[in-house]
Amino acid sequence: MSTDYLTEMDYKVVVNHEQQYSIWPSEKPNPAGWQDAGKQGPKADCLSHIKDIWTDMRPLS
What backbone phi and psi angles, to 5 degrees, belong to 51? Predict the structure, then answer.
């Protein structure tokens, strides 16, 4: 089965209370505990955005 559809989907960057970032399909509701972080678009763009803004991977607690 091809996974090309995964890279063509629209994603959004989400963030949790520990300031940890991830991507999530934009058409799905956010998982519990995650909020929109303000970036939406192709998977590669969202991952690049996370790389630029998430410089300290340690959780806040």
Answer: -60, -40
